[in-house]
Amino acid sequence: MSLPGVLLAPEHHxxxxxxxxxxxxxxxxxxxxxxxxxxxxxxxAPFVAAGTKAKVEAREREDYVGADRAAVDGEGRxxxxxxxxxxxxxxxxxxxxxxxxxxxxx
Length: 106
Ligand SMILES: [Zn+2]
Hints:
There is one protein chain. The protein is mainly β. It is built from no helices and eight strands. It has one domain (about 10-95). The chain has strands at about 10-15, 20-25, 35, 45, 50, 55-60, 80-85, 90-95. It has a three-stranded antiparallel sheet with strand order 2-1-5, with no helix packed on it. Strands 6-7-8 form a three-stranded antiparallel sheet, with no helix packed on it. Strands 3-4 form a two-stranded antiparallel sheet. It binds zinc ion. Zinc ion (ZN) binds near residues 16, 18, 21, 37 and 39. Zinc ion (ZN) binds near residues 19, 21, 39 and 45.
């Protein structure tokens, strides 16, 4: 008896250092899943590969927000990026604000 060939996608397990969320992906290409993190006041934050020692922090925006539509956390504080720090380096997810403009006809 022969069994049909089965291609098994690799299973990646993910955890978050700031909350209890976990995730499993089956993707061969390099990727990083994100989640809405309760530990970072609802910000969209990257997962970290399970077993990896890492720190994920939100960086507050310190300049004047003005009319920009900046990303804010669950407490309304403007956040400019979420930074993951590992022993091997850093990753940065930039939360780019949207500028706004109005036009007037003459
Ligand atoms: Zn989280």
